[in-house]
Amino acid sequence: MMRLSRSILILAAGGAVLAPLCALGHGAEFLSAKLTLLPDAEVLLEITADYGSNPLIMDETAALEALADPMRLRQHETLVPLATLGTATISQHHNWAEYAPAAYLPSETEDEAHALITSSWRWRSAEPEIVFEMPKGKLHDVLLWTHDVTQPDTPPKWMLLLAGDRSRPIPIQQTPWWRSWMAAAGAGSLALLGVYFVSRNFTLRQRTL
Amino acid sequence: MSNRILSLLSVMALASTAAAEVAYEFVPNFITPPPGKETIGDGHGEIAVDSSGNIYVSVQDKDPALAGLQVYSKDGKFIKTLPLPPSLHGFVIRKLGDGEHIYGAVLGEQKVIKCNLDGTLVMEIPTSAFPAEQRDFVSVTKSDEADPKKKTSIASGIRIADSKTEITLKLANGTEKKIAKEKGVSAAGGLKLTNCDVAPNGDIYVVDGYGRSFIFVFSADGKFKSVFGGPDKPLALANAHKIFIDTRFEPARVMICDRGHKRMLHTDLAGNFIGEIATEMRNPSSASFHGDLMCVAEIAGNVSVWDKANKRVADLGTSPQMTNTPGIEPKDWHQGIVTSPHGISFDNDGNILETEWNKWGRVLRWNVKR
How many domains does chain A have? Predict the structure, then answer.
């Protein structure tokens, strides 16, 4: 609320206004990795860095650097950088509440000047479970938390990964077996119908001739 | 003769082993919160013990009845709250030639205070006493007109002038850069002081732990003397959360909780690197000394005890999973298991008191087994 009123004041003043230098720190000394498990084995990973109140991330450049290779995906015995999953989508915002679990939101008494950058990756997992790992020597801890869209009321599960840590295996939303069977049956039926109509047209034309 | 020497050496070895062995037992529900309160209030501070055994805990709660420096008796009963700034993020109690005082870093006001044990102010080191190179270091950004949430970095440097129309920075390469104060331009940075301690000669050491991790040295009367540390080599600190004067050694050393790098290290009093004490910790946040021992609050969920040879001799209250949050509610607390340790102190008998980064406020205690 205070930040909102301050923002209004800044806007009302117009022109250039220097933000106060009194952020109290200790807002989020970690990267928040929100893992959303979507149907059909789709995975959305949104990793957020705060360069407004994280003493380890002083500015936007440092935030983008931290998000370039924040953690790796373990596939069998190899650690795969997230960059190999596709190009990340980058966005800037101030919405911590959507990108960190409630237990990790800053205290009400800490009037933080958050400046957030979120890097998002979306991919379809070929594995039934996914495991993340933090290579040794990484400066930024990662708060990994899961958000299951099929069970929105379930409190999120979270784990803090420090350098060298590995997450527990996270089961993903596999496509149910009957859906692939139904899809195959549907495609087969359509093909049969197509063949039927083509052959019927052919027969009718021959009769007309 | 040689047998006597061997016997003596054996006895000495056994004695040193015995000295190294240390054990603690958890004391459930040690602290009694202020009357009418279930918990002590929003904690993001420190805990310390005076020479008579009273316990001091800094609390930043919005409730004025809780905010300030709470004082408890030896047995954990609430006595009073000293009306000190609620953002007393780090403080120590030291008894020197001029008596016993509280020295604290006020995070919300970027100053250092020295008080009597009743809370009366004796001395203040204001923001203006810090060198401009660190105090006025800012990053200037500009918000996107279409999307004000999107900011672009313009430059970082020491703010040497600031008028209605422009801000002038001195850049790292020594050149000056003038930045017009267009709509959306803002600057952020400056000091974020997190702790201080006092050397045997009275010099006051202050750390900018939520800023750029510089360590400032002031004389006993608050005059700036020198600065070391910071993000660059040789120390290359990151979130040097708290520092302490380690008087277990002669001459005394500076012990730095280099939390971002998950390590603790020693420098001499001039800031020269001596060595790492430990690495790969659960983010060391605070420490205290008693005899040859040092106890450490690790904010990602552990309390550890170390001997003078940098050997870990005990782990207490270890959380089964890593933590670093103020948001774990009392219903989810477990006896003897820490959430996010933020401040720590030995009492005068070698027992350990720990305070946590927690919106409701929490203090745990382990007694040393004799």
Answer: 1
The answer to whether residue A115 neighbours chain B at the CB level (below 8 Å) is: yes
CA distance B334 to A15: 52
A121 has a chain B CB within 8 A of its CB: no
- Is A141 a domain residue? yes
Q: Which comes out higher in pLDDT, residue B1 or B152?
A: B152
Q: Where are the domains of chain B?
A: 23-131+191-368, 137-189
Q: Residue A179 domain-assigned?
A: no
Tokens coding A148: 């299951």
Q: Using a CB-CB distance cutoff of 8 angstroms, which residues of chain B are in contact with residue A162?
A: 262, 282-283, 300, 322
Q: Specify burial of residue B180 (Cβ count, 10 A radius: 0-12, 13-18, 19+).
A: exposed
Per-residue tokens: B162? 């600031």
Chain A interface test: which of B192, B212, B281 (most A C-beta within 10 Å):
B192
Q: A65 CB near a chain B CB, below 8 Å?
A: no
- Which residue's structure tokens are 């000669």? B201
User: Cα–Cα distance between B253 and B141 in angstroms, integer?
Assistant: 39
CATH 1.10.150 at B137-189, yes or no: no
DSSP summary character for residue B71: E
ipTM over the 0.85 cut-off: no
Bridge partner residues of B288 (DSSP):
B295
SS3 content of chain A, % helix, strand, coil (to 5): 30, 30, 40
Domain that holds residue A109: 26-171
- Using CA atoms, how far apart are residues B286 and B225, in angstroms rounded to an integer? 24
Model pLDDT, residue B2: 44
Contact status, residue B185 vs residue B177, Cβ threshold 8 Å: no
Q: How many CB atoms lie within 10 A of CB A191?
A: 10
With tokens 């800031």, the residue in question is B271
Q: How far apart are CA A15 and CA B74, in angstroms?
A: 56
- Report the first-to-last Cα separation within chain A, whole angstroms: 82
How much of chain B exceeds pLDDT 90, in percent?
Answer: 85
Which architecture, in CATH terms, is B23-131+191-368? 6 Propeller (2.120)
Q: Whole-angstrom Cα distance, residue B315 to residue B280?
A: 14
In chain B, the residue whose alpha carbon lies closest to the alpha carbon of A60 is: B153
In a mutational test of the B interface, the residue from A136, A160, A167 whose CB has the highest number of chain B CBs within 10 Å is A160
Identity of the residue numbered B81 = T
User: What is the CB-side half-sphere exposure of residue B362 using CA atoms within 13 A?
Assistant: 25
Does the pLDDT value for residue B15 go beyond 70? no
Residue A5, in any domain of the structure: no
Residue contact B325–A23, C-beta within 8 A: no
Does A8 map to a domain? no
**Residue contact A52–B325, C-beta within 8 A:** no
On the question of pLDDT at A1 being above 50, the answer is no
Q: Do B327 and A103 touch (CB under 8 A)?
A: yes
% pLDDT > 90, chain A: 36
pTM of the model: 0.84
